[in-house]
Amino acid sequence: MRKITITTLVLFFVIANCVAQQEKGIIGYDNWLDTWTEFQPSKQDYEEPTEILSGTISKDTKLVKRNTYLLVGDVFVTNNATLTIEPGTVIMGDFNSKGSLVISKGSKLLAEGRQTDPIIFTSNRSVKKPGDWGGIFILGDAPLNTYGNESSINFGLKPKSFMDIVYGGEDPEGNSGILKYVRIEFAGNRSKDHGNMSGLTLAGVGSDTTLYNVMVSYCEGHSYNVLGGNLILVKMISFRSNQNDFNFNYGAQCNLVNSLAIRSPYVSSPDGSRALYMSSYDFKEDADPTKAFTNINAENLTLVNVSNDLESDINVGLVQEAIYVGNDVAFVSDRSVISGFSPAVILDEDIKLNDTNLRKIEFIRTYFNNCNGNIFRDGYTNNDDLESWYGSRAFNNVYSKGPDTETFIASNHKKYPDFRLRINRIIASNDYDEDDDD
């Protein structure tokens, strides 16, 4: 009996060690994309709207599942009010008025869906397309790196008061509410003078805000636009965004954990779009050098470009880099997967390749798969120095060439694809805290 017990324990530790070595990309013992996501949202039918949301919400308000809501024009939640949304509620952005939802500074959005009953923001058109409506803006009072403590969003929104579109402050732990098990579909309307809105804009949002299991799909702008603030983003999904999947700027301090970006070369913006785009400012003279520059810690990301013919799409220029790192940005990628890009990473041309700068930009235990080149500096075709640096054993990066069908567990599944990494038929997983339904 003792011999059997010892043998069992040894076998357990061997298996556990093998699994631990595969903890790259999105992780979980189960496919956490199941049940609450939707990868074919244009095929979904919802009930006709029964209630209209418009103008200003200045007192605590609750949206209930039994109603379907139509978001007409620019809707502002102001006066420190809280907008609560029941699990399973559907809110439709109006196409004609380009409906948008703005949670002004001091107010909160409590949108806490369930894995089996997500909250859905979508288009009200029968034939839905990217850019049908505006998007969701959450404005907080966490720090920015611009001069002064505040800025404002400029997308042609029409508030009653200018203060309704102001964000930023001095509270890095600010609480703007909860987004959990939420889908945002077909957003990203193009404003006349300010470009496309994003599916979810997080401007000056603090760390006590809960952001967990959010999916943005078919957005004409960025899926997630993070402007300053101090955030923890867990299990975020961006699917077929026209612009950047995750866009960071203005001194954003962010941990992006166990999250997924699925790009398509056939819907990307001609102006350029990446899975991750990180900048500290639009113009350096606008940034206060005494304040923190953008700092992004990315752990267990999967960034994948899904192409029908990757080599051909690269040759005709449809495929870009997965990650763009701007000047004065600190970035760490740990245990992530970057698959099917050209190249994997580009560093801004103003980043000088010296020890100080390269220690701020780390790729650790990262799995580079099927990329046309790995890490380059913008405007330079010779990347020998970067290959030598990041190819060091100290970083423990892995380089591979393999199709999606062999790299991921079930990337071709139409309803619930599984983009967890499969290496030697061992599923990437660990004991990460799974939160099925609370």
From TrEMBL:
Leader sequence segment: 1-20
Top-level lineage group: Bacteria
Keywords carried by this UniProt record: Signal
PANTHER family, alphabetized: LIPL48 (PTHR41339), SECRETED PROTEIN (PTHR41339:SF1)
The protein, known as: T9SS C-terminal target domain-containing protein
Organism name: Winogradskyella alexanderae
